[in-house]
Amino acid sequence: MQTSERHPSLPLRRARWAAMAAFATNGALPASLLARYAEVKETLGLSPALFGVLVVGLGLGGALVLHLPGIVSRRLGVARSATFGTVWIGGCLILAAAGVALGNPWLALAGLILAGAGDAVVDVAQNSQGIRVQEQYGRSLLNSMHAGWSIGAAVGGAVGTLAALGGVPLLAHMTLWSAVCVTTMALCARRFLTEAQPPPAADQTDPAAPQITHRPTGRQMILILAPLALVALAGISVEDIGNNWSAVLLSAERDVAAASAGVGLSVLLAAQFIGRLLGDRVIDRLGSRATLLISLAAVTVGIFGAAWAPNVGLTLAGLALAGLGCAVTVPIAFATADSVPGLAAHSGVTWISWIMRTAALGLSPAIGLMSQGGSLPLALSAVALIAVVALLLQLRPAHR
Description:
This protein is an all-alpha fold. Helix content is about 80%, strand content about 0%. The protein has two domains: about 180 residues, MFS general substrate transporter like domains (Growth Hormone, Chain: A, Up-down Bundle); about 180 residues, Up-down Bundle (Growth Hormone, Chain: A), CATH 1.20.1250. Helix 6 packs antiparallel against helix 7, helix 8 runs antiparallel to helix 11 and helix 15 runs antiparallel to helix 16. The protein is globular, with a radius of gyration of 21 Å. The N terminus is likely disordered.
């Protein structure tokens, strides 16, 4: 039975804040190294091409583990998986930092790939715990937890920047920061809810909820998870555009000075953060399906608008709308996948997470190839079609 949101128990309230802190910790740990990537490139003397190989290490590691994160969470439980996974990430990032200190790019790459594998495990564990807390509260909370990840990433990036400005050696910095993050995660995991009680079944009155009451066949799995995977891809495509292409769009297509072109990413991330803070309230008021339809429509209009806007102001408005729309897509995809009856615990979250990570590896290169063959606005418009298809699939009746 779900706990009333007006009278949550003390353990439940503690579990909520522990889950949010776990998300923040998971964002903070790798971001502290990412903030020093320019230094890493210079120290290792990497060409742009080789540096490009290095930076995909985290994503590649997450893609290579396939369904392992779900198995780990089922075997160890989400609390131990989050704790041990964070220990693993910290140790591997220290290994990567050691590779930089030794001038060995292959050791650095190995550390990043291994850290990415651990990050996939922690990602599934913390989202599974967030979904369980959300179910026990009886209202949407997962979006605010993802906002906690954004806060943690910002803090981790700031710590990395300050360490670089202060001349702190990368290896010493990552060793100390890993110790802080591992300790924080271990303390958070102690407050996680236990998994003795299975989560409640999906609400069969919700048109967005899966309508299957037995173990899904392979075909049913595809029919259920493929649309959700597209929802998640629509969300991360906006993040990819912001991270890798917003500055290029503003400088190359809108004649913004290169030194100022980073404003596009700042606007998009700020809008996404606001969307994550407000997303739970919107879902509670409108329902997850209506919220998702509005969000996918916003992503579509936002990307198309940013791609073809005639001036800088409208381009930034389009990026902001896309950032606002993508804020709830991944949390909704995770929560819906987790509620599919008949799937092993954590399997839905695991597969959505894996598809996201795998697709993200090819997303930016695909945009680059399409831009080279046509133009960046055309490439971004092609990416917007992911959200269009996801929206159309969500408009179809649920499969029974």
